[in-house]
Design a protein that fits this description.
Layout lengths: L10 E4 L9 H28 L6 H18 L2 H10 L3 E3 H34 L1 H7 L2 H27 L8 E2 L6 H7 L5 H14 L1 H19 L4 H35 L2 H25 L2 H14 L2
Parallel strand pairs: 1-3
Antiparallel strand pairs: 1-2
């Protein structure tokens, strides 16, 4: 491709979920509501865990970290989308686009690692209950969260640096509501073979690895529950991981659905709509899944409101 097709770009246009002007107020109200509920719901979990000494356990420590990551994850995309709708200006600067992409990959990856860490925690609690308190000490819990964060930072930094080597054409419209990595590849004029290779390798290693760990942990958990003789014991063991299993199912099915829809339809608009599932809906539902099915969280919130009301 000749040099005349390249340009020194200053920004991109985020086309959002719909180009219809009459739908913009509806989209704005809907996503503003979901964003506020997500932030408020996850903050409640963080407050409940931090304020109640009964919840100072590895399981709730990881849950509070997951809630924090969910707040950060949704905050990388939705505020900019809402601002674009409000100002009717879809421009995002080149630096802003790279920054948004960096943090969305960072928090999405961190979310993925934390789900694997939580599965490991449930595996130890159910399959090796006598050794649980010996193994899952605060130092190990902190180390697992730290390693998850470091791996996510390194991966997002690598993907962002790989984007910086690309040249872009005069077509700078991103048919999405945020700077998605795959959409950036499609806009590039230069060869993306190396970027694709690095992306597939890192995805296979950093997403496939945690997923394999989750599947292995739950295969052992199911086998351990099956060996429990009493029905009450089976139910109690299942309840300790039901919420986490629901979140895992929601997160991975939504991510997988995005890529299946994208591959089947080749429609960027369909991919953008499907992306709402793991970028917005999953962080939105996580607090409800954990709080509605968890007596400890509800009890901690009641005690917190009782103290706050004094």
């Amino acid at each position: 491709m000749g040099p005349g097709n390249y340009t020194c770009i200053s920004g991109f246009l985020l086309l959002g979920l719909s180009k219809e002007p009459e739908l913009q107020p509806l989209i704005f109200g809907l996503f503003l509501s979901m964003y506020l509920i997500t932030v408020f719901g996850n903050l409640l979990i963080i407050v409940a865990v931090s304020s109640d000494s009964h919840l100072h356990t590895p399981m709730y420590f990881f849950l509070s970290n997951l809630s924090f990551v969910d707040i950060c994850f949704i905050s990388t995309t939705i505020p900019k989308m809402l601002m674009n709708i409000k100002t009717q200006n879809n421009v995002i600067t080149y630096a802003g686009c790279i920054t948004q992409m960096y943090f969305s990959i960072l928090f999405g990856g961190w979310d993925n690692f934390l789900l694997a860490v939580m599965a490991y925690d449930r595996f130890l609690a159910i399959c090796h209950p006598l050794h649980y308190n010996v193994i899952m000490k605060p130092r190990l819990c902190g180390l697992l969260v730290l390693v998850s964060w470091v791996l996510s930072v390194l991966n997002s930094l690598l993907q962002s640096l790989m984007i910086l080597r690309l040249s872009f054409c005069t077509d700078l419209e991103i048919p999405h509501f945020f700077c998605d990595l795959n959409q950036m590849f499609k806009l590039a004029c230069s060869d993306t073979f190396l970027n694709d290779t690095v992306l597939y390798f890192s995805t296979g290693l950093l997403a496939g690895g945690p997923l394999f760990g989750i599947l292995y942990s739950y295969s052992k958990i199911v086998s351990s529950i099956h060996r429990i003789s009493s029905a009450q014991g089976k139910y109690k063991s299942f309840c300790t991981c039901a919420s986490h299993l629901s979140v895992v199912f929601l997160f991975y099915c939504s991510v997988l659905g995005v890529y299946l829809i994208s591959a089947a339809t080749h429609s960027s608009q369909s991919s953008a709509i499907a992306s709402v599932m793991y970028t917005v809906i999953t962080p939105l539902l996580n607090p409800f899944i954990y709080s509605l099915r968890n007596k400890d969280i509800k009890g901690a919130l009641k005690r917190f409101y009782g103290i706050a009301g004094i």
